[in-house]
Design a protein that fits this description.
Elements: H1 13-34, H2 45-50, H3 57-76, H4 91-114, H5 123-127, H6 130-164, H7 170-187, H8 190-197, H9 202-222
Helix pairs in contact: 1-3, 1-8, 3-6, 6-7, 6-9, 7-9
């Protein structure tokens, strides 16, 4: 699985630290300013209204995170696009994997609906229309997911692996890289949980464990 990391340039500890700090600062801004408590993307309501919901806070916030991070990684760190997983030759296979996962998810939900008699369309379809639903998909795909996959799976995961291979075997190095990068992935969601969702107490712990599990799954898909 780690053949994907062959030929990737190593980043300095300074670039790793700057990326973590910059991403943290950007995510604090996104969740504390753009996402007002209980109103995701409320500060951007005028863009949302003007585009019929196609452009929302999730999309703008994700692009902010991506822009800040790639400026540090590619601009200051001198890494190539391919070093963070941006490879044109992988776009086709990536889209096929994403489509396959989507089909599986929809299939499971369809099977569950067979045993339910209260099936209704999501409220967004009935109250807001297709542009809002499409905007939600675009916000996750091109905003949230693109930023997180680039930073935590495309950058931190291989960089931690390259560092760990200098002091341990490949299997151990991969374990260290997976746990370290996805711990950062889980922790990066804390501002959202505190500022937007108001999560407290033991719910934070369970949320972090769930995010770690999700991060490890996404890492397996990436590898």
């Amino acid at each position: 699985m780690t053949r994907r990391f062959e030929g990737i340039r190593g980043a300095s500890w300074l670039v790793l630290a700057l990326t973590a700090v910059a991403y943290t600062g950007a995510i604090l801004f996104v969740n504390g300013v753009l996402f007002q408590p209980g109103q995701t993307g409320a500060a951007l309501h005028w863009v949302y209204d003007a585009t019929g919901g196609l452009v929302n806070g999730t999309l703008v916030g994700g692009l902010c995170l991506l822009g800040v991070s790639t400026f540090i990684i590619v601009g200051l760190g001198r890494l190539r696009a391919s070093d963070i997983g941006w490879r044109m030759r992988d776009v086709g296979s990536g889209l096929l994997v994403a489509l396959a996962l989507w089909v599986v998810i929809q299939g499971v939900q369809a099977l569950l609906l067979v045993f339910r008699s209260d099936f209704t369309l999501h409220e967004a379809w009935k109250q807001c229309g297709p542009t809002v639903v499409l905007g939600g998909v675009l916000g996750q795909l091109l905003g949230n997911a693109l930023a997180e996959e680039t930073v935590f799976r495309g950058f931190f995961l291989p960089q931690f692996y390259l560092r760990a291979t200098g002091v341990s075997r490949r299997g151990t190095a991969l374990t260290i890289a997976l746990l370290g990068s996805q711990l950062l992935f889980a922790l990066s969601h804390l501002p959202n949980r505190f500022f937007v969702m108001g999560t407290t107490g033991l719910d934070i712990l369970w949320d972090q464990l769930g995010l770690m599990t999700a991060g490890l799954f996404f890492s397996a898909v990436y590898l």
